Amino acid sequence: MTPQVLVLISGNGSNLQALIDASRANPPTLDASIIHVISNKRSAYGLKRAADAGIPSTYHNLLAYKKKNPENPQEARQAYDADLAKLILAQTPDLVICAGWMHILSSAALDPLEEANVDIINLHPALPGQFDGANAIERAYEAFQRGEITKTGIMIHYVITAVDKGTPIIVREIEMIKGESLEDLENRMHAVEHIEIVNGARMALGKREKNMQTSEQ
Ligand SMILES: Nc1nc2c(c(=O)[nH]1)N[C@@H](CN(C=O)c1ccc(C(=O)N[C@@H](CCC(=O)O)C(=O)O)cc1)CN2
Ligand SMILES: NCC(=O)N[C@@H]1O[C@H](COP(=O)([O-])[O-])[C@@H](O)[C@H]1O
Fold first, then answer.
1. pLDDT (tens digit per residue) in 77-127
2. Going by C-beta distance under 8 Å and a sequence separation of 6 or more, which residues neighbour residue 198?
3. Formyl transferase N-terminal domain spans which residues (predicted)?
4. Whose CA is nearest to atom 13 of ligand 1?
5. Active site residues
């Protein structure tokens, strides 16, 4: 059966589009079916990309949880994450890909996925341990201007509760260019992302298949 992939997004969805295009190429460069997209932002353009591709999507709204429990935002976030895991597992994916998903996932989201043996990977626009967290490209750009670094990169990694600390699957270094604008650096990095997110998905699915065959022996 063709592996089923669920993608988490928050914005433009250009990496989601790369996954859709790879899975629908003739012949496919990614042997998988993108079965569902979940966004934490109603305005995410990636939701339109999913609709245009005929892929079902869900807008999972954190604000509703915070309004229901204004006294305890931490509890609200836990409930949000627990329901996110239920939304994901209801689609029975083989792999979940964070493609610009801009929420830190707590154990309330990750533990049910682990228990269900569903792998989750993330695309992060920095080298391991370099600029963990949000706004990594801008932070790398500023560090380069200060003469602190000469290169940045992108990685595809497994997701654990420690943000951007999961085992890397792919790491690609990207040289920085003196005088280059932030926008030009971002464009160069996105071009690399669109290639490596497909390669990372393929590698994660391949590893999963191998592990399942080994456990069946
Ligand atoms: N538990 C994990 N959750 C997530 C990981 C991870 O490795 N472990 N990767 C991230 C993606 N990401 C970087 O790659 C990242 C995204 C967002 C943030 C962040 O600080 N988000 C803020 C809210 C930002 C917003 O809503 O605009 C937050 O969650 O409070 C850090 C890292 C996906 N999640
Ligand atoms: N920390 C996670 C993070 O910063 N992810 C970044 O969000 C962008 C999503 O673009 P897209 O919505 O066009 O795919 C990508 O640049 C990705 O590396």
1. 999 999 999 999 999 999 999 999 999 999 999 999 999 999 999 999 999
2. 18, 19, 22, 29, 30
3. 4-197
4. 133
5. 124
